[in-house]
Protein 1
Amino acid sequence: MPLKARLFINTTIVVGFTILAGCLIADHEFPQGQRFLQCLVLALLASTFKIKLPGMANTIAANFVLFLIALAVLPLDETLILAVLSCLAQCFWRPKTRPKLIQVLFNLASTTTSIALAFEITSGLRKADAVVPELIVASAIFFAVNSGLVSVVVALLRNQPALEVWRNCHRWAFPYYLSGAILAVVITSSSRISGWVPALAMLPVMYMIYACYDQWIKPRVAEVVRD
């Protein structure tokens, strides 16, 4: 592994786990324990809805929809706990090849950093109870930071420009993220009107989005493999 890639990966891991440790050290009362457990169970389930992108070794999962919902309805520490457990499930649920420890740590750290930045930057909107603008901004930040960190690593490993890697690889993920972000906005907004449980009843739509996108992306993955 090139030195620059190793340094970037290690730095990302240190930053991500420092953020995570800072949140976990604080006292936890779980004031919304039932809501947290509901989101956690759904996020773990969504972690099994994995899609491989063209030209990428890792996968994306539908659990990011629950990350965005959790950002709007749960404290940061509970959201990070949910995200870490979901990422572990994503890494170890029926992988084609067993993930290396450094890959798992980087995945956890990049997700933690992306969520923490999205949470902090949208804090003003959260206090103003502007749920739709909050989720739109949080979705954009999460996607940009998470995909950016992964693209930089791939670029350093392949000795390619990071922007080129992002355009060629993560552009495939954007429609998936966009549809998931819209679903997160609809569910969170509906929960303010009809209640939390009826809003979560719309989550089967998440599986439909996954199934449709998976069928659409598989031929593109096959083309890249043939090339």
Protein 2
Amino acid sequence: MKKLVLSGAVALLSLTQAAKAQITHFIPGHLAVLRAGDGAVPLKLKQAPIFLEQFDENTLSATPSYSVRIPTNGPNSFFINGHAATEGTLTRSSDHKLLAFAGYGGVELLKMNGTASRLDIQRGFCTVNSVGAVHTLLYKSELLTAKINPRGVATDGTSNFWACGNASGTFYYNSSDPHGPVRFTSFQNSRAIKIIGNALYASMNTSDANLDNESAGIYGFLPVALPRLADTQTHLVVPAAPNYRKVVGFEINTNGDVAYMSDTEAGIQKYVKSGDTWKFAYNFSIPQTIPKDLNNSAGCFGLVLDFSGPAPVIFATTTEGYDNSVNSNRVVRIVDTNSTAVVTTLAQAGSTNIAFRGIELTPE
């Protein structure tokens, strides 16, 4: 039998080309991260680029293995405020085929000045599939309120969308419905929204809870799991512990007896259901890489879990940064074996003009 022997240079070139040829889409079982900024354009400018990027779930990486750039200027533009503390949560559709986030779009940003949430700019949703195809869906902001900050969106993978935000920003929208968004009157302000086990859930932190006379935590919807009517009611499913009410991201396992929340100041909290009562188990604090007197915050924003193994694996984006803003932050992983589990950094934003925001598992 003849053996084929490649020279070192040829072998390296072949491997490099093969790697490049393989990375043309999202790979299932990895992490998708919404990144704001490219390191050059200031995050406070609306036209700062945004990307959806893939990182390995186990290995520290300086660069993503796959990246999709979202157009942030022109008639097909879509953007978020990269420096905003509340924008940029990321979800995966309930059929696992799409990544989705909420924002603004359809304008020539370079011709407009002012705060995006106060300008006459359409709000909308952006979805990206496994091969990087970007689709945007815009709705008229006046159908809700001109000052809504779009924070996130959940979808079933078809034309049904459930959004979260402030100023009556929690609503249902079907792109084929001429009447536009349907606001949930009993639950106007929310931080994150997600479909888990074919049921819709939303989080409320202490700021929004005070406005709505509610408690911080994870909420479910009644009388149907995927609501579409204005008079839909909500109920508190998992209350946040007193010291951890800066809630954004959340997860609940398939058995409905273990939950996690991200707190923008404290880290990640675990809750366990005993009988009919949810009990706080413990908090994972996040070791910081920025000096305390310079650091924005020591918590987490985006959150997703992998419950497939013997121990839940937590993935999150941190809220650290300079100049009272999230930037130069990280993607971290925690294998939840116990309360002393190690926090591992998987990716580090390399500039004050880059911020990791939402995080999810990659689409299939």
Protein 3
Amino acid sequence: MPESGGYLAPILMSVSAPLCYPNRFAMNLFTALAEVMGEHGLQETLTLAGIVSTPNESLVQEYPFARLAALNQALDEVYGARGGRGMALRAGRAWFAGGMKSFGALSGVADPAFRVLSVTDRCRVGLEAQARIFTHFSAQVTTVKEDAKHFRVVVQPSPFAYGIQAEHPVCHLLVGLLKECLAWASNGHDYPIRETQCIASGGENCVFVVQK
């Protein structure tokens, strides 16, 4: 039987309205998951998560965070804690490469003027553009902070930790997405990223630290 990954019982969160992604974000994520695990693996995971409908291409914010959190939990149930983490990281990278990099603020990052910037500046622009997309189009408010050695991406809240209690950070899909965003912005560099705080394991927000 697969490991549970340290998940405890989900908790109910009292909000005036459901927090949601736009349908297109979720659709792009489902496409990335199918690319990584195959249609059969995706359907098994969706069934375990209790997800029966697929999102469409609209930008209407109606795909609930609670459903994305259930999908995240189901990855661990199907593949075990280590396997689920690996699947999530790969799917997060495919999620960015297959849809998010050509969306909104990121579409202008391909401009030739962007490519003459330093690697650090390109990474900053890429992360900030991705953060603006999440904040503008979804209920995932995302900001980028910086010091001499690190970028810090602060997410409040992450849909993949929403309503979950766990013993460790769980937002591996976002880690994968951020890693691919940085690889794309830097022409292939692989930046170490750690989720140092997660609302699922008691953090106030989900915080992702990128070593420059």
